[in-house]
Design a protein that fits this description.
By secondary structure, this protein is of the alpha/beta class. The protein has 20 helices and 28 strands. The protein has a ten-stranded mixed β-sheet with strand order 3-21-4-20-19-5-6-8-7-18, sandwiched between helices. Strands 22-23-24-25-28 form a five-stranded mixed β-sheet. A three-stranded antiparallel β-sheet has the order 10-16-15. Helix 13 crosses helix 14 and helix 14 packs parallel to helix 16. The longest helix has 19 residues. The chain is elongated.
Amino acid sequence: MDGYSKDIVKEDIEKLKSIFPQCVVEGKVKIDQLLNILGEYDEKDFEKYEFTWKGKNECYKVARERTRATLLPCESESVNFNDTQNIYIEGDNLEVLKILQQGYYNKIKMIYIDPPYNTGNDFVYKDNYKDSLANYKNIVSSTGKSNPETSGRFHTDWLNMIFPRLMLAHTLLKDDGVIFISIDDNEVDNLKKMCNEIFGENNFVTQISWECLDTIKNDAKYFSDNNEYIICYAKNIEKLVIQGIKKGEKQEKYYRNYDNDERGKYLLTPLHAKSGTEASLYTYIFSNGQVWEAPKGTYPRFSKETLKNLEMDNRIYLDPTGKKVPQKKTFLSEVGDRMPPKTFWSFSEFGSTRQSNKELSELIGKGIFQNSKPSKLIKIIIDIIKMDKDDIILDFFSGSATTAHAVMQLNAEDGGNRKYIMVQLPQLCDEKTEAYKNGYKNICEIGKERIRRAGAKIKEEMENTENLDIGFRVFKLDSTNFNRWNVHLTTEEDLQQFLNNAKTLVNGRTEVEAIFEILIKNGFPLTEKIYSLDIDDYKFYYISEDCLVMISFEENIPIEIIEKAIEYAPAKIIFSRKAFKDTSEMVTAKHIISKEFSYGQIEVEFL
């Protein structure tokens, strides 16, 4: 292959990598990985070294399968339901992540998750892929399962749980988005291998070691394990912007103003460097008569001309006594208040598990939830990433909702408007636990109450928080609101017979619940507002102030009402199948609605 052809191939591989980063490793295309994603993998065609386990191919199928579940709004458990931009979802995150694809595809700026660590206890995410919704309801009716190390599928079960969820998470991230995942020694190696496949190993950013314990484990058999890990991957590392970590008093104490320079405090740095050439060596005499040359074995950091200019601009500190060597001034005001984050995070700067337990105890009661991450840690993680003011942060293993707490706290501190989406399985609390004794029936109740109390505390203790969004909309995972979306039909005859006999809504469901499902399936965010509208005593609803989608569940709607409805210029109108007396009237209505207008064509759908 000549050079020109190689360049073309390389360019094509780069294009493929931009779409499927997990399919290109070390510049080579993994054909089987690509076929797997496209649903055309035949494992007998490939035999080679790879990271695999029993059930991996099933994970790809599961991630691709569409969900028939929906999210039901729960205004009574929400805070500021009509005005908030934050979301709290109760449900199995596998199904929820599929639902979120429709309104949040490529829209999430940052994901933080703290998944089960596979320690052998409380491993409740054993998916039944044949019926995910039934499996979810079975999970939330029991207080926990386990994944003992004696099981031959100890690692396999955990891998099968996390892999499809990470695949779905990848598609939700914006092109400049990033994911942080907390993990311990049990699965950190497997997690990195999975993320290399899903995000592409070229998008690996870093692995942080967090000192989670601030004491020594004196009963440790070998070593006291005081740290956990936080691994970080970008959606596209070329677009990721790390703005750095804020400097604190510890860093700023090194900046001083020895000569009352009007530009403020500065850091003194040497004029020499380890690398250079013999030709760059020179001797320089400063204005105070002090002679300088690079110490033996080192070289000048600046050229002679540059050094002269620095001295003329008073950027060289000259000791009045002449005892200290001349050094360059690096002004704090010019370098900014941030610095590159280190990969070791101490408990003194980033918080510890004990500190998080104390934080929660003071907020919701002692012993109610143990070993969550400190809000300080999550707040710093969020703050490290350069974000737009309205960016969304997702946590689909939200636990006690530390991430929501951290988002509100950071917004209060810097005036930001970041939004969050929390997802948590409503696993029941054991009756013997402090949580249950204090009235919390499941983990979600703990998380929601923590957000309520944390938001109120932030408002009470901090100034200028009048516009701080401390609300959240609660949604709960459940089966579809529409009978016809809740069954599998194989033939046209089955479909027609079903439609003739079906009611639009599942018994007991409200119109508002159904509208939220329509909102989701039409790609709107869960924070979108729903409005009601009466047209000559016929009730309509519309989504967004621009009336993008209009909906009616009314029966026997006259044609003149339809003509009035289209004057609102919606992009789409959705009706119940009982809206018209017969097929002829339905065809007439559809013809009136579907004709071209100056602003385009209105789409029609029947439930």
